[in-house]
# Entry
Amino acid sequence: DAGVIQSPRHEVTEMGQEVTLRCKLISGHNSLFWYRQTMMRGLELLIYFNNNVPIDDSGMPEDRFSAKMPNASFSTLKIQPSEPRDSAVYFCASSLSRFQETQYFGPGTRLLVL
Amino acid sequence: AQKVTQAQTEISVVEKEDVTLDCVYETRDTTYYLFWYKQPPSGELVFLIRRNSFDEQNEISGRYSWNFQKSTSSFNFTITASQVVDSAVYFCALSELGPGNNRKLIWGLGTSLAVNP
# Structure
């Protein structure tokens, strides 16, 4: 079975540009998590969904960040406008359900904002 | 508040040594889950083990073993006869019950393990 798929794997953009990160969940999984990892702050949970519904977005840094699940298997994380401090590795993870806590991670998107 | 502490920031060992990575947690939940993940230099996060709070039996998987002790709120991870391929950052995590009975993970800051030839 395919694991969590993320695209792009690497993104380099200039400050002020819009960035869209994409994630495809493992088939049959109902919960989706977006994380950001930096050296300074470690692994931070940005937002998570259950059955396409956002449950907790308290980790989203500011209004420049938005996340959606247009369907049960796909999610996007958008940053508009991007800033250099957004440079990080962004991971998405999925789990079978809100009660099944084992999260399986995608390979990550390495974002560099110049 | 829920918390996970991995006091060892970095550990360096020589190949074939045994090494233990410590994880101490705080929670008020009576039912909870603990996890270990591995992040090798390639960057992906790999699930290693999940343990629920009712099961205090130690777990062994090849060279890996885990010691869960509720009395000391610890969930330590031991690698026996370490190998260079074990070099990675290892994260311990605790599940937290959130809104709507949904659970999310509280992460430790990770322990960077270097296994030298």
In short: The radius of gyration of chain B is 14 Å. The CA atoms of residues 11 and 24 of chain B lie 17 Å apart. The first strand of chain B starts at residue 3 and ends at 5.
